[in-house]
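Notebook, student rotation project (T.W.).
Task set for the rotation: take a protein with a known small-molecule partner, predict the structure of the complex, and write up what can be learned from the model alone. Partner molecule chosen: zinc ion. Sequence and SMILES entered below by T.W., checked by me.
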Amino acid sequence: MVAGKCSKCDSMITSINIENIAGKVNGKDAWNCISYNCPRCNTILSIQIDPVALKTDTIDGVVQRLNR
Ligand SMILES: [Zn+2]
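Predicted structure of the complex:
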């Protein structure tokens, strides 16, 4: 099994904590994001736009547009 190390606490990472975090543009909520946190020290290792929320929001937007 391949495992990377946390850049802060140096522990081997075999799983990751995923948490929701608001992505803001000019102080306003714009994107639902998720952060990947070290399960041991909780350091944020990476953040990305939540792909599930992005898909749901896109579908909702398309349906709204079609219903106009
Ligand atoms: Zn860590």
